[in-house]
């Protein structure tokens, strides 16, 4: 687990565009070569973008395909990039949760304090510390964080109901869970970047189905 490159909005937009065109890893490398060096396009940057948008893990394939097909629901792409990263990059998950908790507690993100608090979750070596910085830089690039590098703030985004189910699915994939209580859609720290979330959870989203479990409503992937 790691996140050894900060991803700009430009490279993530390129990944989404290649996926929308039905392109493969080679097509992604060619597109990214117009934004970053060929070495990065073929290497680490390209690998992260490919894993997120072009060649996701099998369980996330339908989830990513739905986002690509419905990309017009988020013209700014910040929600799509966040949800895709959350579902496909394990290292992003504890960073998103920790940053949300810090904002709720302190009003801002403190990267140094986060590194101390996340030692058990992500490690305490230089690679882990750099990975945390890379995730926060990526969040800032796509518009999830506002403020300075020394004291970034969450940018509270407006979440349309049409993306509620997809983001619930992102949380389920991020936790490697088989089902998820719908109420967690509104309280999960991993989604704290979203600010106020609409009610409804997975309603109307075709890849999840709802069930009653002991008086609780849960969402599970549609079989």
Notable traits:
223 residues; mainly alpha
Task: Tell me the number of strands.
Answer: 5
Taking the alpha carbons of the first and last residues, their distance comes to 29 Å
Portion in helices: 40-55%
Strand order of the largest sheet: 3-5-4
Largest sheet: 3 strands, antiparallel
Radius of gyration: 17 Å
How would you state the average pLDDT, rounded? 90
- Unreliable runs, pLDDT <50, ≥5 residues? none
What is the approximate shape? Answer: globular
Q: How many structurally independent domains?
A: 1
What is the string of helix and strand elements? HHHHHHHHHHEEHEHEE
Number of helices: 12
Strand content: 5-15%
Global structural class:
mainly alpha
Produce the secondary structure layout.
Elements: H1 9-20, H2 25-32, H3 38-42, H4 44-54, H5 61-69, H6 78-88, H7 92-106, H8 111-117, H9 119-122, H10 126-142, E1 145-147, E2 152-154, H11 164-174, E3 179-181, H12 184-187, E4 208-213, E5 216-221
Antiparallel strand pairs: 1-2, 3-5, 4-5
Helix pairs in contact: 1-2, 1-4, 2-4, 6-11
Task: Describe what this molecule looks like in 3D.
The chain has helices at residues 9-20, 25-32, 38-42, 44-54, 61-69, 78-88, 92-106, 111-117, 119-122, 126-142, 164-174, 184-187; strands at residues 145-147, 152-154, 179-181, 208-213, 216-221. It is mainly alpha-helical. The chain has one domain (58-223). The strands form two sheets. It has a three-stranded antiparallel beta sheet, with helices on one face. A two-stranded antiparallel ribbon has the order 1-2. Helix 2 packs across helix 4 and helix 6 (78-88) runs parallel beside helix 11. The longest helix has 17 residues, at 126-142. It starts with 8 loop residues before the first helix and ends with a strand. The model has no long low-confidence stretch (mean pLDDT 90).
């Amino acid at each position: 687990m790691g996140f050894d490159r900060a991803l700009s909005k430009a490279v993530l937009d390129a990944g989404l565009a290649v996926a929308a065109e039905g392109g493969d890893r080679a097509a992604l490398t060619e597109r990214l070569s117009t934004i970053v060096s060929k070495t990065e396009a073929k290497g680490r940057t390209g690998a992260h973008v490919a894993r997120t948008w072009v060649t996701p893990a099998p369980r996330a394939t339908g989830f990513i395909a739905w986002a690509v097909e419905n990309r017009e629901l988020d013209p700014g792409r910040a929600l799509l990039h966040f949800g895709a990263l959350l579902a496909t990059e394990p290292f992003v998950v504890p960073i998103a949760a920790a940053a949300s908790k810090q904002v709720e507690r302190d009003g801002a993100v403190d990267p140094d304090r986060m590194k101390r608090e996340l030692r058990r979750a992500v490690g305490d070596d230089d690679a882990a510390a750099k990975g945390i910085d890379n995730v926060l830089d990526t969040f800032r690039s796509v518009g999830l964080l506002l403020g300075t590098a020394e004291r970034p703030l969450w940018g509270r985004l407006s979440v349309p109901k049409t993306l509620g189910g997809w983001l619930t699915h992102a949380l389920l994939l991020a936790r490697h869970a088989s089902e998820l209580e719908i109420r967690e859609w509104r309280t999960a720290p991993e989604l704290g970047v979203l600010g106020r979330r609409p009610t409804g959870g997975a309603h109307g989203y075709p890849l999840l189905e709802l069930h009653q479990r002991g008086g609780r409503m849960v969402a599970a992937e549609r079989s």
